[in-house]
Write the structure tokens for this entry.
Amino acid sequence: MIFEEYDPLKGRRLQVLDPDGQADEKLLPDLDDATLKLIFRRMLETRLLDAACRTLQREGRLGTYPPVEGQEACQVGAALALAQTDWIVPSFRELGLSLVRGVPIKTILLYWMGNEEGSALPKKLRHLPVAIPVGSHCLHAAGMAMAIRYRKESDAVLCVFGDGATSEGDFHEALTFAGVQKAPVIFLCQNNAWAISVPLKAQCAAKTLADKAVGYGMPGIRIDGNDPFAAYLATKAALERAKSGGGPSFIEAITYRLGPHTTSDDPGRYRSAEEVERMRAFEPLIRYRRFLKDRKLWSQDREDELSAEIGTWIDEGVKSAESHPAPKPEDMFDYLFAEIPPFLARQKAALLAALKED
Ligand SMILES: Cc1ncc(C[n+]2csc(CCOP(=O)(O)OP(=O)(O)O)c2C)c(N)n1
Ligand SMILES: [Mg+2]
């Protein structure tokens, strides 16, 4: 229903919560107060852990890290719409999604500390590890959803990626197969305006990214990606479609990356500080605080308490990740293939020999 009403070709965009925190009551999903507060908590956890990761990287305690500031709403909203048995296939900027699913903070930190164990997620979480090659995981998501359909199982797959991924061949192949096979998969594109230094207009001549859905035979929708309710509603609708045999859907969440692409990026070289300041007014926490405050579910004191609690959780997470045994150099050969191919076995042997000599 929502997908028809908000057909991108009609030029509409789904928004429930506007930047002033005013909700469209007709659209507002029926969520209890505990869930409304949980949305805030998860967004704040994401915001604070993200900031901590940036600091840790600066202190030399974490490797290159991709900040998520500004994109919390679509991740938290979409993840909360899923059942715990639905699969999550993320790219690399999905901290909010991972926290909602319950990926341990230690695992998240180990990954960005360069430890292979950060990719060993508890199987029951049904959350794939980080995928750095842009767009590549769209194929895994489509394949997993095809397998679900083939086995007549009832789960669905949420595949999350950025605007830049839509320029990759893998994206095209994944959506082609998913469409033809009616695979139960939701493609959630976080259009954050930039693919490192490349603006959207330099990589897409279509009016919108959601327009692309029609070519793959699936419905598309554009949503305000800084509105958790829009993400929740669109994901729920896509999920119902997927689970009732209707096939895949495409969601374009319009958001904005407030921070640098990664901690090794200098965004000042390709975008103005004015642009970032202008976009900051639309970020999700501001509007969500206003919304909760109007419902008497937020106060500065309560947020301070929550921030302190989250701070302790972060400190403990960092301590447990930093006290974990450091990775061995040869680990890099061990986890890519089930059985190590001969050329890598030779390289591993050479590395071990060189390490012995040192
Ligand atoms: C196949 C591939 N090409 C290039 C890169 C380098 N790279 C990393 S992120 C990125 C841009 C991704 O932009 P987008 O998909 O919009 O996601 P965002 O970073 O904005 O979240 C590029 C080009 C890569 N990781 N993989
Ligand atoms: Mg992007």
About this structure: The first strand starts at residue 87 and ends at 89.
